[in-house]
Amino acid sequence: MNAYDQVAYVNRPYSLSHPVHMAALGRLHGLDAPPVEHARVLDVGASEGANLIAMAVSLPEAQFTGIDLAALPVERGNQVIREVGLSNARLLQMDLVEAGKDLGEFDYIIAHGFYAWTPPPVRDKLLAIVREHLSPNGIAFISYNAYPGGHLRKTLREAMHLHMRDATDPAMRMELARSMLRLFTLGRPDPDEFDRAFATEAAAVLKLSDSALYHDYLSEAYEPIYLRDFVAHAARHQLQYLTDADLRDSANPNLSPEAMAAVAASATDRVERQQYLDILRLRRFRQTLLCHAGVAIQDEWDPARAVGLFVASPCEEIGEGKFAVPPGVEITTAHPGIVAFLRKLIGMWPEAAPLAPAEAAVALTLFRGDMVELRTTPGIAVRAGDSPAASALARYQAHAGHDQMSSLVHRSLQGGDDTTRRFLGLLDGTRDRAALVRDSGITKEEVETLLDSLGRVALLVA
Fold first, then answer.
1. Are 251 and 243 spatial neighbours (Cβ–Cβ below 8 Å)?
2. Tens of pLDDT along 223-236?
């Protein structure tokens, strides 16, 4: 039985893999990727399709295909697709190695948490799929465990596998693995920095869910890779490095000015620069965007190419001129233009504003700092109108009692209390506020509060 049939893998919407994010980054690097509104998207290793299904809801005119080797997750995901009534999404149970030309052409290809957890022939096939099935100006998102930080995780993994010996039962394997981790946390009476690093990492892994432990650490295959080697592997398939999806990691390495200057003096190109930064920061995970090798791309962002994109910000003003985005991203500024810009976006969220020429430079700075989002479409999330409607997926998840709900800006939210779940079920667009008060049994003020909060977390559509 497939490991993902034995232990369900908890997957959720992953915002950095959304086509609107990929397309915006492509545009900033000089690549005009296909319009996402009518894009064809492939998700490799889609599991139950939580990432894909949420995308399909937010881009109703685009087409989404997910493939996975495990049969049970695919069956569960297709059940959700039927229940929500999506006609633009499908999940296929398929061995990637056997995929042929009939798979079709796609504008965006996603392989999140797949590459480093598969054996070499499958990794090679993945990049062959990207080369053969990605449209000429398309973009692929591939995430993977990276070196040098991956050495720490790999050592813990090897210790857990040694301790599990020949155990095959998933529950027994996880218990033995955790017992090995507990040994690491005991440490030594007089630990050095090396000892503390392993003890701290082991303590963090002990907190993981069964799903994360079993599939991220106890999988049969686990092979981190240096960025330079991943880029070389892609090049053998006529693919090139475009950029990385996570700007917080790639554009803000949090190193001293002296270290940054030394890297700039040593690196001969941007891939080598990123490789030096990975080494200095002991980076352990990457989310890389690829495109075809023949496509011309620009290393530096041109603010003029940002004009016409849509900008939005989920940040909050937590003090005078102090803005924060969870988890842990903060800036403080006295610049009146930046303050006014962010306050405007806070008032609009989750809706986005078209980016004007005068705003482009500051928007790019804030984008690098993870304070704003740039999109190629305005999105479909809105604040409550006269007859408020929640997304069909959120209403299904609330009715089914899911712990998590998927927002229209591709985030995972806590499921909410019983009152919120019942209220979401009423938001099918047929009731005005008076009808909502009547049918929900709560006051007008409570209805307004709920509508405002649901709009703020991007669960409402026009």
1. no
2. 999 999 999 999 99
